[in-house]
Amino acid sequence: MTVKRVGIVGSGIMGSGIAEVAAKAGFEVTLRSRSQSTADRMVAGLEKSLAKQVERGKLEESERDAVLGRVRAVAELGELSECDLVIESIVEDLATKKHLFTELDRICPEHTILATNTSTLPVVEMAMETGRPDKVCGVHFFNPAPMMALVEIVRAITSSDDTIAEATAFATSCGKNAVQVKDQAGFIVNALLFPYLNNAVRLYDAGVATRDDIDAAMKGGCNFPMGPLELLDLVGLDTSLAILDALYTEFKDPNYAPAPLLRRMVSAERLGRKTGVGFYDYKKK
Ligand SMILES: NC(=O)c1ccc[n+]([C@@H]2O[C@H](COP(=O)([O-])OP(=O)(O)OC[C@H]3O[C@@H](n4cnc5c(N)ncnc54)[C@H](O)[C@@H]3O)[C@@H](O)[C@H]2O)c1
Predict the structure, then answer these.
(1) Among protein residues, the one whose CA lies closest to atom 20 of ligand 1
(2) How far apart are CA 76 and CA 103, in angstroms?
(3) pLDDT, tens digit, for every residue of 17-30?
(4) Res. 215: pLDDT tops 80
(5) Ligand 1 centroid to 210 CA: how many Å?
């Protein structure tokens, strides 16, 4: 089986980015959001992103039209029934994702690979909701998906070699560098990154340094492109909290126990860029 049609479920930060990547790589993309209006908004966002690339001379107009022609935005899950690969990128919540996998298993033909873009959650638990646990794996893109070179291919203990090979071939066709990793919370990147981000919140909350100085220190001192608090705002504080909770549940390592301030900010709906305020205020910019 060679993947031709890709389904993407979820119209958040990551779903739209993955749709852009896959459509630019030549795949037919069906993008599913829970309402037609958000699905259409995603296509409008994609049009805007491609228009910028044309303006900057990075994309031909004809190529832009071809990419848009490959993307279909839908509200019904049943529209994914012709996909060879479906990547879910909905909220980082295991119960919600498990329910979706049950539905996808019912809708999609036998050959379809069902993948999750989860940052930390156990892929095997989603796989076991289906009648095809061998055809389930993680395909973990990074944010922003069109810019970031890496994809982690996550092998659940049930994933077959064929599934991993197909998922790896898909990521490579998207121009990404695919690495393979076992189904363990945080995989490679988030297992290493999140203790650092979490400790940056603790440092800030303890008043050791200001927000701006913490970010400036890590950019200037470690040559990181973004400071930790800026990065948390980009990822989304709700997603970051869910990632830390999943890591702590798995390892009980205090470094993964979410900083109390992070939880309070999520309660206050200060989720970062997506709500316009997090550690920084984006409404002022
Ligand atoms: N934000 C990141 O930096 C990042 C990076 C890599 C992977 N991820 C993973 O990608 C996935 C999505 O993250 P995101 O940052 O795009 O989040 P987001 O908050 O931007 O979007 C979440 C999406 O899930 C949908 N959703 C919420 N509840 C739902 C439900 N009950 N049923 C169906 N859909 C529902 C929302 O409508 C929205 O479209 C998560 O698994 C996350 O861990 C996130």
Answers:
(1) 12
(2) 11
(3) 999 999 999 999 99
(4) yes
(5) 30
Query: Does residue 92 have its Cβ closer than 6 Å to ligand 1?
Result: yes
Ligand 1 centroid – CA 117 distance (Å): 9
Atom of ligand 1 nearest to the CA of 99: 32
* Distance from Cα 285 to the centre of ligand 1, integer Å: 25
Q: Is the pLDDT of residue 1 over 70?
A: no
pLDDT given for residue 285 in this prediction:
60
pTM of this prediction? Answer: 0.95
**Per-residue pLDDT tens for 117-168?**
999 999 999 999 999 999 999 999 999 999 999 999 999 999 999 999 999 9
Catalytic positions are 119, 140, 152, 190
Residue to mutate, 74, 86, 91, ligand 1, most ligand atoms under 8 Å from C-beta: 91
